Amino acid sequence: MGQIYYISALWAAHDINKRGGLLVDGKKKLVEVIKADHMSKPDQCKKICERMVLQEKVHILWGTDGSNMMKIINETANKYKVIAQNTASIADELQDATNFSRYAFMSSFSTDQVGRGIAYYYSQIRKKEKKFYILCQDYMFGHAMAEGFKKGLKEYFPQAEIVGEDYHKLFLTDFAPYLEKIKGSKAEVIYTGDWIPDAANLLKQARQMGITLPFAHIFLDEPNFLHEVGVDGTKGLVQLSQYGAENPNFKTPEQIKYYKTWNNLWKTKWTAPFNTRLFEHGTGNIGSYTQQTYWLLSVIERAKSTDPERIIKVWEGDSYQYVTGKIMKMRPCDHKAIQDLHIFEFVPPEQQKVSFNIPPYYWYQGCSNVGPTFTVPAEKVLPLMDRNLDRCKGKNDWGE
Amino acid sequence: MDPKTAMYVAQGIHGLAYGMILFLVASGLNIIFGMMGILNLAHASFFMLSAYFSYQFLSMTGNFWLSLLLAPVATAFFGILLERFLLRKMHALGHMGELILTVGVSLVILAGVKIFWGTESLPLKIPPFLKGLVSVAGMDYPVYRLFVIGLALAVLAMMALLLYKTRLGKIVRAAVSDADMVNALGINMPLVFMFVFGVGTWLAGVAGVAIAPILLVFPGLADQIGMDAFVVVVTGGLGSLSGAFIVSIIFGLLSSYGVQFLSSLAPLLMFLFMAIVLAIKPTGFFGERE
Amino acid sequence: MTNKVFKWTLWIALVAGLALYPKLFGIYYTNLFVTFAVFAIYSVSFNLLLGYTGLLSFGHAMFFGAGGYGTALALKHIHGLPLLPAVMIGFASAALLALILCPLVVRVSGTAFAMLHLAFGQLLHMLAYKLRGITGGEDGIGGFPIPAFSIPGIVSVDMKAPENFYYFAIVVLGISLWMMWFFTKTPFGQIQVGVRDNAKRIDYLGFKVPQTKAVVYVVAGAFAGVAGSIYALFQNLISSGALDIFTSFAPITMTMVGGIGNFLGPVLGAGIIQMIEELTTRFTEQVELVVGVILILVIVFVPMGAVGLLKILKQKWSARSASRPNLERAS
Q1: What are B232-282's pLDDT values in tens digits?
Q2: A276–B14: do the CB atoms touch at under 8 Å?
Q3: What is the distance between the alpha carbons of residues A136 and A147, in angstroms, rounded to a whole number?
């Protein structure tokens, strides 16, 4: 899904450029975004990173989903002493003792936080369902997502019951056997870390089989397949998000202006591939990547330099507020971001005005989407710290 | 029936259904690879192409039956083009030539699909009259899946009829054993090959239209389903219709009961079974040809 | 006389060119060459099975991966393991895998051989995912120490510097190619060609076909392991992707493009494919389209591969020059 990353970075860069660029090294310079495709292949990734650093002479490597790709990006950044920002890979181990690098910053949330955040919501906020079925993809990411949830349940929701736990093969064609087990287990919520196409096929086939259980997820938000499943089928989905807008979404005139700028451009000017439903609002995951880029650019601006050492000095311990109102803190010892997280409950269009509080008062007519939003406070979901990392020895979870 | 037994029965039905889906997807490849011996790695790409065509026809006409009719034909058209102008030249090079060519074709189809329909997924709904659940053996079962099962059985019947009851079928089966002889008898072999390849691609197309509403239609669809089709055809035995059918059922049941009882091994079972069968009988379950 | 002098100058030019390459082209292209070297070894090892023995494998990546994982795991768990033993462990892991599979595969040929390898290759690929504790799953094993190349007491060369690793890779490439070439010239190698063309006849001649196939199989697997080992060292990462279907397909396309019938064909093919990849990613986003079209064009118009094409061109050129009076030969 490379386009959503590209447009996020491009948008932030374009916005800054329109205001004259960044004042670095004594001069106002424009931000340039160069697109590079790693094709999910390690040798291609290494090659392309080196090309960016050695030939295109980039200052920042901005990456990607796929923690094995991000590892290579971080490593290349470390080798050639440029900054690497991780906006989309949510593996905790990227910043652990084996893999940590001073040049790599993780502004994204991580799998550990996701599971614990969702567990916190069900125990402290929702306080209704108690029986959970865990269905994740059978590879490291899927298992990490499951572990985070199990840990969170132990921590916040000991009365909860895990009535089943399964790991399906990637790109599975037929979910029916798993869904049958879920039916038989009397689960009340299905927790999954699946992404497309598994996320879509899981939801579709569940609804086709008459299973109306809610899903607790992070990736079941792509509008195309949500529309395919329809309003009823998408009602009640629970998503944990790092986008960070509490209700109502539009509290200040600036926020309305920001949203409308994006939305109007989408309606009038943008062409393929950016003119599809996926890019209509610029919120959600796309919004999150955009905000993370703004953070990066702000750090560079305050460092007044593209020198990595100055950037590191500013970014470590930095606090920054997103357009949505969320406050981010960069934990200095392991370069992970401390942030509130939010839970979205998906509701039918007529109820979406609680979050979409300006005309036309809905996100989408054709499917359920973000309605009530709840905050999971930062202190409840502090990112995992690897205490084996020397820099972190003797520090608490806040990094102090 | 107590709930436990009900669940096991349900898994059995799911297994059979999935087996039918596998057979439907593999049927075209069974003809092309199994019978003609052509290593067509673009088979899954035609499947995907047909799914995209069905979306197109559905949005243009709003009629499911029309798209079920037209999309496979459109796919077969491209298949025949491929055979006539490119694949034919590969006979002399054997498998290697077919392999490289069809890999190239699959890449071109992938690129084409992305160019015309974009990289995101396409929403494809089950037609309203096939929606909903029906009571089967005491459980609620999706109507659409019954439709797909019915379609797969119809395809099986059609293929069996074609191969064993018609003159054309006789020619094809003879050509599979000894193409030169059939040629010597005055039958236009190139035309037969072209026709059979067309039928094979048409079947991939039918599978694509039928299965698309159950799966997400996106550019990775070919990769998702491609391996399964191959595994079925090869394990069933090249050249064997019954082999492909029986192995499909076995895979389906393995898959659903595997998930039920051996869930951590479930992802491995398909290849494990294939490896075991091939290790014992390298030509596959009912395979005759090399 | 002139022919020999010509050959020697070519060799010297080649060696000189390789030696000066890093200085002339910089880090990025140096690293590109290392990737080429890895895939050259890998493809030649594959061609021992295809071109020489007539066995097409759809799962050669499992040996590549075995070598990579062998080396990575060894370096991760054995402190202070030197460079050459690490590579040897990779070599041995792949060879061991080949030995284990031998009894199953040597009685098989043709399509069945290809498909059996597809099954095993995919099985091992899935196992690499599942046994996350050992293999690190899709994230793989990374960050293991890269030992220096050292002869105790004499010299120690840091292998993290791209230039040094390049020379190391070149040497490994050269030695591997030489060993495999030598193997094809041995009686074993010669028998393989016979097996490819007519296995029955070789059998009647008294040679034990399965046993000789086994030897080639292990050699082919072991050198694929060497390639995997260098790959892991180069990336400082080995992940389950090294065992996937695309990695199994890479040597097939490279060998085909380069030319099956010639020992160096796959090397040429690896180089060509690398260049194509490099150029396409620079100039277009439609990589699949370009690669697909190129594959189609190559197989339709140049099915004999680059080596075959060169042969044809050479023939045409010498045919032309033969028609002119050749004074050199007269003297």
Answers
A1: 988 988 778 888 999 999 999 999 999 999 888 888 888 899 989 988 888
A2: no
A3: 10
- Tell me, yes or no, if C169 comes closer than 8 A to chain B by beta carbon: no
Q: Any idea where the domains of chain C sit in the sequence?
A: 25-257
Q: Which of C122, C249, C292 lies at the smallest CB-CB distance from B271?
A: C122
Beta-carbon separation of C115 and B234 below 8 A: yes
Which H or E run includes A319?
strand A319-321
Query: Closest to B104 (Cβ–Cβ): which among C104, C126, C296?
Result: C296
Q: Which residue has the tokens 């060799």?
A: C11
Q: What pLDDT digit, counting tens, does each position of A31-51 carry? A: 888 888 888 888 888 888 999
| Torsion B240-B246-B247-B252 (CA) sign | positive
Contacts of A253 (CB under 8 A, 6+ apart): none
**Closest alpha carbon to B231 in B285, B195, B194:** B285
Structural domain spans, chain B:
3-280
Q: What is the pLDDT of residue A165?
A: 96
A42 touches chain C (CB under 8 A): yes
Furthest-apart CA atoms within chain B: distance in Å? 64
* Alpha-helical regions (H) of C48-82: 61-77
Rg of chain C over Cα atoms, rounded to whole angstroms, equals 21
Q: Which tens digits make up the pLDDT trace of B212-225?
A: 999 999 999 998 88
Nearest to A42 among C130, C137, C237 (CB): C237
The closest alpha carbon to A283, from A265, A253, A258, belongs to A258
Q: What span, in angstroms and rounded, lies between the C-alpha atoms of A180 and A176?
A: 6
Contact A211, A182 (CB under 8 A): yes
- ipTM surpasses 0.85: yes
CA distance A260 to A254: 10
A360 three-class SS? coil
| Residue scoring higher pLDDT (C323 or C156) | C156
CA distance B220 to B223: 5
- Assign B2 to helix, strand or coil: coil
How far is residue A21's CA from residue A184's CA, in Å, rounded to a whole number?
59
Interface A–B counts its CB contacts (< 8 A) at 106
Mutation target for B interface from C288, C298, C302: give the one with most B CBs within 10 A: C288
Contacts 24+ apart (CB under 8 A), A278-282: A278/A4, A278/A222, A278/A223, A278/A224, A278/B120, A279/A4, A279/A7, A280/A223, A281/A363, A282/A11
Mean of the per-residue pLDDT values of chain A: 91
Residue C279 to residues B34, C36, C283, C287, C290: CA-CA distances in angstroms? 38, 14, 6, 10, 10
Asked if the bond preceding C147 is cis, omega within 30° of 0, the reply is no
- φ/ψ of A62, rounded to 5, equals -105, 120
Instruction: Write down the pLDDT at residue A295.
Output: 94
Q: Which helix (H) or strand (E) holds B195?
A: helix B189-211
Q: Does A208 touch chain C (CB under 8 A)?
A: no
B78-96 pLDDT, tens digit each: 999 999 999 888 877 878 8
Q: What is the DSSP string of A156-181?
A: H-TT-EEEEEEEEPTT-S--HHHHHH
Select from C138, C141, C142 the least CA-distant residue to C244.
C138
Residue type, B113: V
Q: To which CATH superfamily is domain A112-220 assigned?
A: Response regulator (3.40.50.2300)
Q: Measured between alpha carbons, how far is B50 from B127 in angstroms, rounded to an integer?
A: 17
Task: Report the predicted TM-score, pTM, of the whole model to 2 decimal places.
Answer: 0.91
User: Cβ contacts of residue A246 below 8 Å, gap of 6+?
Assistant: A324, A325, A342, A373, A375
The one-character DSSP state at A124 is I
How many whole angstroms separate alpha carbon A34 and alpha carbon A10?
9
CATH topology of domain B3-280: ABC transporter involved in vitamin B12 uptake, BtuC (1.10.3470)
**Mean predicted confidence (pLDDT) in A139-165:** 93
